[in-house]
Amino acid sequence: MELFTPDFGLIFWMFIAFGILFLVLWKFAWPMILKTVDARADLIDKGVEYAQDAKEQLDNARRQAEEYLNEARRQQADMLRDADKMKTQIIEQARSAAKEEAAKVMDNAKLQIRQQQKEAEQQFRDRVSEFAVAIAGKIVGQQIKEDDAQNRLVDQLIDRMEKTN
């Protein structure tokens, strides 16, 4: 059973070797391990911060995109309203222009009708005066020598007739 019960010297030298190994590791390896662990922890912290910043930027970008979309929708609605107003204004302008043009055409037609009526009245007067002179000449038995005097006489008779009516 010597295998299971070591000597005192073996235990002593094992402790000494362990102590030296522990001191060497504590002096040289342990600071390197801690430095590496700290660097890794810093890297992880930076990664977490970067991820949080990225998440915040993504959220801000989403918010801005929503704002831009809402603004674009609002502008689109405004443009559609403006286009509808412009369409209505154009239609109203066209209607008013058509009414004005129709009024001009009607006024022009009325003016032409009046002119034609005056011409017809003048023609009628001339014809009536010719008939009146012819009838008066036959009735009186003589003809008036001057045409101007005949026309004046007929115009006076017609004016008297118009005044009585």
List the keywords.
rod-shaped, 92% helix, mainly alpha, 2 helices, 165 residues, single chain
List strands and helices in order, with pairings.
Elements: H1 8-140, H2 147-164
Helix pairs in contact: 1-2
Helix-residue proportion: over 70%
Mean pLDDT: 86
The end-to-end span amounts to 166 Å
Alpha plus pi helix count: 2
Backbone shape? rod-shaped
Domain module tally? 1
Quaternary structure classification: single chain
Q: Structural class per helix/strand content? A: mainly alpha
| Biggest sheet architecture | none
Please give a quick description of this structure.
The protein has helices at 8-140, 147-164. It is mostly helical and 165 residues long.
Q: What does this protein look like?
A:
By secondary structure, the chain is mostly helical. It has one domain. It has helices at 8-140, 147-164.
